[in-house]
## 1
Amino acid sequence: MKTFLSLSLFFLLLTGCREETKNQNVFASTPTNDPETTKIALANGYDNFENVRQLDFTFNVKVNDTLRSQRAWKWFPGENRVELTENGQTGSYINDGDLDETEKAIDQKFINDTYWFLFPYQLVWSDYDFEHNRSAVAPISGEEMEKISIMYPSAGGYTPGDTYHLYLSPDDSLIKEWTYESSSGRSLSTTWEDYETIEGITVAKMHKSADESFQLFFTDIDVIVKED
């Protein structure tokens, strides 16, 4: 089962629309483990994620220089526990598979934001088909890059049938740009830039559209590892 919140639902969150969805966990029960896609997760420190006790970050979205969303998260992966601070209010939940409506609303935002934050790990955590091209033209820079297209099943997940075209650095297998295509025809291309590695976890802190009118970025990142 696909365990992610796609960009089309992200747009719905920005505009305040509601969509009925079933509760989903960030983690898939059966990893994909294909070497062509797993290498992207490994390049972003996936092997170090098991050492993480707490991961904090703030998710920010600007559209035409106006801050549209800002959500501060505290994530405790080993406990399946999440805390959100937004608009001066704090809420939390434990994802035990039995969430009330308030918890589901937080969970929906959490899956969206962590999907942007740690998308490379979804290449291990979720189910998909993929196509691999050794050389393709990236949509924003126009540079020749390696391209992997991730195609999710037509059933399951929040918005099934979506495709993500990843454009990779040949030197380190990091995503440099991507294009999202929804099953309904919506499309968006952004950069992946301003990478930073904290306690072994590598994150792209900035995503921009070609004209920079859309900017999604992360601040206040902190990774707390388990004690030996």
## 2
Amino acid sequence: MTTPVRTALPVRRTALPVLRTGCRRGLVELRQSFTNGADLVSHFLWPVLMLVVLFFLRDREYGSSGFPLGTLALPSILGMNVAMGMVSMSQVLTADREDGTLLRARATPHGVRGYLVGKVVSVGGGLLADLAILLVPGLLLIDGLGVDGAAAWLTLAWVLVLGMLATLPIGAVLGAVFTSTRAQGLVQLPVLGMIGISGIFYPVTALPEWVQWLAQLTPVYWLGLGMRSALLPESAVGLELGESWRQVEAVGVLGVWAVVGLLVAPRVLRGMARRESGSAVAARRARALSRPG
């Protein structure tokens, strides 16, 4: 009599150590980012600058809507910050590949997967901290927000989680594609382009129709819309396309981006890790040292 083969147990045994190791590594890196002076400044600099801009926009109304620009912009800026996690993730991965960190991770069992989990935890945790630094004072400084119940906070939570799942894997793919930290400047161009047409700083309904359709293909637009649906009063929905928050569509589009990213990112990272070698790391270091100033 043969014993039935169980396939779930080895997968579970593999997945749990990877998750534990990755989460532990990510939490250590996150804690270090709040004890290092330069990293600590970077956590506070952008939120403080945005709060200053929002403070001066608090009394300026958008057209005849009666809504201050600061009120409309705060939720959108939160969505933009989540989307910028793509850039942060790609920069981290490129830097770690250039200095040999990824090569060392490959030398350990399940090291690449644990490394990726750790980066998601550290970058995602840093994003949440930055959002809190912006949101908490923003709620006190900006009038007209509609955070008045558990439903608003629940919406905010699922938009954040789904938004990070939709954008961080894209950042991992971009980090695998670009071979140097200098080339990372190219990553910011398409991201800034998406932000420019996404209605973050100005309602998308004021843009040409073809730009509106293009914006709706990006995760940035839906992140901003989801944040606005959570933080703005119901009367502000008249400024949106179709005069609707379209939360079902937001879940669908962000979900598609998340599924595609989670399927593609591990494959791209494994292929990149297989191509890593000590000689490749040494060559990149030599090129970096030979660059002027």
## 3
Amino acid sequence: MDSIVVPAWSQALAWIDDTLGGAGLRPTGPVEQTRVRPWSVLAKVPVGDGTVWFKANGRCSTYEARLLDALARWAPGRVLEPIAIDAGRGWSLLPDGGQTLREVAPDDPGHWEELLARHAELQRDLAPYAADMVALGVPDMSAPLLPGHFAALLDDEQVAAALGDDLARLRAYQPEYERLCARVAASGVPVSVQHDDLHDGNVLVGDGYRFFDWGDASVAHPFAVLLVALRVAADRYGLKAGDPVLARLRDAYLEPWTGHGTRAELAAEIEPAIQVAKVSRALSWQRSLADADAQELAKWGDAVPGWLAELLVPNML
């Protein structure tokens, strides 16, 4: 089956065969595309009694393959390490990492504390490689660049039309957004990798915590990762803004950062970091949908104006 991301599926199959052969392996059944999106294709490859996975990123995120390769060197044992990548085409062959935290953890938010703490440690340790990540093509969403991105989104005709009455309110919000970006830019916490889709379904457990699915990643203030993470936890467990459980999750995430400020100082940085990250989240969706057809835009297209409109509503904390 052909797809938008892999127009020449036969080339992908040949690459899979060659790559597995180089590792002394071979497919033992047909390769099955299990997820086809405008931004990526995921395929299941049976090998012996097990499985490996092929991922093809669209042009919006070909950098993921290069980032995976680099993360395997910089943080071995803490990410899902690829068997092989094709850096130019954005292809990667990945081992089956086992079960996710979501699959094995009890149905309560307590297990998120360890998840967030381990991810914060990973971000902290990867901060020295931020410039290297940008050189690999990972989007630079550091705070000084965000006001320009915000203005460009509001000037986009399709985005402006989708925003409707919110457009004028967002234009009026631009000076406040610039102020928040300046505050985030002045932070003593260094920029690092920002997963942008962190939750318990994107971390493998068993032999430590290993994070995967970096197709939305950027280089930004690390606290921005809580934008999605806390929302997923709140939605899953019915937590309202101000719930003490959310405060516990926040504190667990902040603990590895205490070398960069007091707990109170660090906590004060979360709200602005989350707020300005809504623009980078909108941009991620815009990139992801660049090759989408009408049906796909009908399904996911509201995400771009939706995340911009989120600038006008309170956050979880």
